[in-house]
């Protein structure tokens, strides 16, 4: 099998290399990729939308269908992980529970059928069986870091018109803060802050904000996702309306991407049981 | 003078080969994180700052965490 | 055809082609499922590199409009934003598909207790 794969790859690679002289030279301004449709985007992006970052304009305005269905693909991936993995059955470790007695630092193992301490007990704290992430240095550092990371992600979202950034990056950074909380404390702590139901709801609301903006344009008598018609609603002229609409749809993308990243992490790290995990 | 992108491209290929050759899946997951970060550097050298930002957050951040979470839940053993 | 400028002028493409077939070889020949998924990841990033290489222009700047160019814009001055947008969405889709692929690997591990392809085949046949 390995030899067959090697022969196949070398054969196909040779074919590709033989035809590589048809490719344009690297960095050629007259290459076909740079001559047909993209000069139009570069010349007209600022005039149409008053937004200097052309990538954000092409992403959320000229090619907004692409971005909308891409957000839908991300949502579908979140649902796929949920349906494949999620189960309430206990895993292979049986019914054990581990608790830590905070004042003394003693770890207690409670067998199946034993009496468990109260959920919100100040004295006993539930810990994971396979991995005990209790280090005060890591916990304090992450607790200090997370608010700044979240503010940074909002900056990335709001400043995406003028600098690199936008909905996808902001969503992933925001999701990474929740994942950081789950890694530095444990899964239950982050589930308390953002439950699975919240994650599912946010991802759906995010895609609906995007699709609903398009539908609003349709209802006001223009094409789907043609933002110019929203100008009276946003109290601005047509170009500024497109600029504001880019921000609105990017908020939707941020919510969807952030929630789906967290949701997939919850399912993957606990193998679908969402009690304890990495 | 050697351009910086030739060095980065060489490191990328070394990281890809290393990730595929590793005998421990946790090592492979971490090396693929380094690979993603080097890809991000190469994209930034070529001027695609938005794509580099996305690759840095998604490729080097979240997908490495996904790999590590999966290896943590399954096994580190691999035959090849 | 002058060989040396030809090879130097397209070295990014050689790197992309090498990574492309490295990923494809890993996806075909490796027996561990996680290694196959790593091959898939390398495959995807080689395509991303290829598209971004196609968008590069010499002596051009980032696709963010400069203040002094707001009157008349020369397209030669700016990098091509279209491949950037396509690859930006492709990266996020890549991580979503990676999540689904890892989920399937995890599911296979829970049923058969192994990630090796030949052991899984053996377990299926001996059922």
Q: Can you offer a commentary on this structure?
A:
The complex is a heterotrimer of chains A (278), B (80) and C (127). Chain A is mostly helical and 278 residues long. Chain A folds into 2 domains: 51-89 and 133-278, no CATH class; 94-129. Chain A contains 9 helices and 3 strands, in the order H-H-H-H-E-E-E-H-H-H-H-H. Chain A has a 3-stranded antiparallel sheet, with no helix packed on it. In chain A, a hairpin with a 4-residue loop joins strand 1 and strand 2. In chain A, 35% of the residues are buried. Chain B is an all-alpha fold and 80 residues long. Chain B has 3 helices and no strands. In chain B, helix 1 (4-21) packs antiparallel against helix 2 (25-45) and helix 2 (25-45) runs antiparallel to helix 3 (49-73). Chain B is flat. Chain B starts with a helix and ends in a 7-residue tail after the last helix. The model of chain C has no long low-confidence stretch (mean pLDDT 88). Classes of the chains: A mainly alpha (278), B mainly alpha (80), C mainly alpha (127). Chains in contact: A-B, A-C, B-C. The interface between B and C is large, with 42 and 45 residues. Chain C: Its main location: membrane. Chain C: The chain crosses the membrane at residues 12-28, 37-56, 85-106. Chain C: Pfam families: Oxidored_q2 (PF00420). Chain C: This is Multisubunit sodium/proton antiporter MrpC subunit.
């Amino acid at each position: 099998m390995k030899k067959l794969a090697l022969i196949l790859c070398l054969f196909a690679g040779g074919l590709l290399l033989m035809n590589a002289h048809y490719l344009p030279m690297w960095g050629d301004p007259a290459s076909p990729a740079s001559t047909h449709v993209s000069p139009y985007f570069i010349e007209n992006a600022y005039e149409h939308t008053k937004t200097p970052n052309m990538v954000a304009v092409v992403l959320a305005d000229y090619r907004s269908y692409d971005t909308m269905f891409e957000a839908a693909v991300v949502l579908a991936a979140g649902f796929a992980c949920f349906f494949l993995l999620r189960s309430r059955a206990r895993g292979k470790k049986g019914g054990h529970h581990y608790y830590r007695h905070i004042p003394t630092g003693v770890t207690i193992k409670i067998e199946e059928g034993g009496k468990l301490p109260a959920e919100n007990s100040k004295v006993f704290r539930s810990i994971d069986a396979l991995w005990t992430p209790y280090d005060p240095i890591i916990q304090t550092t992450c607790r200090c870091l997370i608010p700044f990371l979240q503010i940074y992600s909002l900056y990335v979202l709001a400043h995406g018109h003028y600098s690199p950034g936008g909905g996808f990056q902001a969503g992933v950074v925001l999701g990474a803060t929740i994942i950081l909380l789950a890694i530095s404390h444990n899964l239950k702590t982050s589930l308390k802050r953002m439950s699975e139901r919240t994650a599912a709801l946010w991802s759906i609301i995010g895609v609906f904000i995007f699709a609903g903006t398009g539908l609003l344009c349709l209802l006001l008598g223009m094409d789907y996702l043609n933002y110019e018609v929203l100008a009276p609603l946003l109290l601005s002229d047509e170009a500024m309306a497109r600029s504001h609409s880019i921000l609105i749809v990017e908020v939707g993308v941020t919510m969807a991407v952030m929630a789906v990243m967290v949701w997939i992490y919850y399912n993957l790290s606990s193998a679908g049981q969402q009690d304890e995990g990495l | 003078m050697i351009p910086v992108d030739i060095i980065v491209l060489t490191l990328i290929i070394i990281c890809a080969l290393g990730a595929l050759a590793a005998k421990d899946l946790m090592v492979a997951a971490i090396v693929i994180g380094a690979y993603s970060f080097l890809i991000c550097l190469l994209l930034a050298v070529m001027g695609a700052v938005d794509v580099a930002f996305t690759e840095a957050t998604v490729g080097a951040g979240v997908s490495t965490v996904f790999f590590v979470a999966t290896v943590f839940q399954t096994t580190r053993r691999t035959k090849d | 055809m002058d060989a040396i400028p030809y090879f130097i002028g397209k070295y990014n493409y050689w790197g992309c082609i090498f990574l492309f077939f490295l990923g494809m070889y890993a996806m075909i020949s490796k027996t561990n499922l996680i290694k196959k998924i790593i091959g898939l990841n390398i495959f995807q990033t080689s395509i991303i590199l290829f598209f971004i290489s196609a968008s590069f222009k010499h002596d051009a700047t980032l696709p963010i409009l400069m203040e002094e160019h707001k009157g008349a814009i020369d397209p030669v001055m700016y990098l091509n934003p279209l491949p950037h947008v396509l690859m930006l969405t492709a990266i996020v889709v890549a991580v979503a598909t990676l999540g689904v692929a890892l989920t399937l690997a995890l599911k296979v591990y829970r049923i058969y207790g192994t990630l090796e392809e030949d052991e899984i085949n053996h377990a299926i046949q001996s059922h």
